[in-house]
Amino acid sequence: MSGDREVEGGEDVNVNALLPGGATLTGMIPASVTDEIKARLLRPNIVVAPLLWLASRASDSVTGQRLNPKFGG
Prior knowledge:
Blueprint: E1 17-18, H1 35-40, H2 48-54, E2 66-67
Parallel strand pairs: 1-2
């Protein structure tokens, strides 16, 4: 679901999406997945830097964006 939405109060609300860029090696990956496949999955730390940036004042003017750290954006 995406698109513009009215938010009561409507000020100081930024909505962005952080997309890792592919399947990520997390606890949600079943144990049955082979080590070969797991080696090709993205590491969860790929989202740390953009997540910290989104939580900072530096991102206050950014809204409505899809950030994909795997592809540099």
